[in-house]
Amino acid sequence: MRYDAVVFDLLTALLDSWTLWNSVAGSAEDGLRWRRRYLEITYGCGAYRPYETLVREAARDVGLPEALGEQLERRWPGLAPWPEARGVVSRIGVPLAVATNCSIRLGRQAAAQVGVPFAVVATAESVGFYKPRPEPYRAVLAALGTPPERTLFVAGSASDVPGARAVGMPVYWHNRIGLPPRDETPPDYLEPTLDALERILT
Questions:
Q1: pTM of whole model > 0.90?
Q2: Stretch (H or E) spanning 30
Q3: Contact 159/184 with Cβ under 8 angstroms?
Q4: Domains along the sequence of the chain with CATH
Q5: Region 69-92: what's the mean pLDDT?
Q6: How many beta carbons lie within 10 A of that of residue 17, not counting itself?
Q7: Residue 32 has what pLDDT?
Q8: Which of the listed residues 10, 141, 150, 168 has the most CB atoms within 10 Å of its CB?
Q9: What is the pLDDT of residues 115-140, one digit of tens each?
C-alpha cells in the first residue's frame, strides 16, 4: 500500500453535513451563511471553546435564531454518508481514523453514522484545538503511530488542505460541492467524490 493509514475529515469528507445545516436553517442560502460564519469563528478561536456554543453564536451573528443550534443537535443523528463513502471506506486495507471539528459526543455519534470502524476518532474537544491548527493532525498521527508522509489525509473543507499539508501529510481533497481553495496550497489529489481513493491507495 502507498500509505500506512488514512485519516478523514468527518463532517464534509465522509458525511453530507451541508444538507443537514441547510435543512435546519430553512434554505441553502441561510445554511451557507451560517456555516461560513461558524467556520470563521472556529478558525479564529484558538484553544477549544464548546462546539455547540460556536454554532449558536454563528447563527446569531448572521441574523438567524440561536435556537437553530439546538435543532442541529437534535437532528444530528440524521447525518448521512455520501453515497459511495461506506463502500469505499470499508474496502481500505489500512487503519482508518477521523479528525473532526466538533465535540466528543457529537463526533462519536457522527463517526458511527459512517458504518465502518475507526481506530481513532480525534475531536476538537478531545485535542483542545480546532483544525486547521496543527494539534489535531499531530494528535491523530500520534494515536495511529504513523509518520505524516505515510498517512493520507482526506479533506472535505478547504482549510484542511493547508492544515494537513503543514504537518507533512499528503492530502486528498474530496471537494464535493466545488469550494474555492483557502490559499495557494495545492492538494496532492483533487476529486469530486471518494471513488478515486481505492486507485490512489494501491
A1: yes
A2: helix 28-44
A3: no
A4: 5-16+79-201 (3.40.50.1000), 17-77 (no CATH)
A5: 97
A6: 20
A7: 94
A8: 10
A9: 999 999 999 999 999 999 999 999 99
3-state secondary structure 139-170: HHHHHHCCCHHHEEEEECCCCHHHHHHHCCCC
Indicate the pLDDT class of residue 85, thresholds 50, 70 and 90: very high
90, amino acid identity: S
Element (H, E) at 96: strand 96-100
| Predicted pLDDT at 45 | 85
In order of 58, 75, 158, 186, 190, the CA distances from 180 in angstroms are 21, 28, 7, 12, 12
Per DSSP bridges, beta strands 189-191 and 120-123 are: unpaired
Cell 455547540, residue? 52
List the one residue out of 15, 191, 4, 3 whose CA is nearest residue 115.
15
What pLDDT does residue 108 have? 97
Contact, 23 vs 31, CB < 8 A? yes
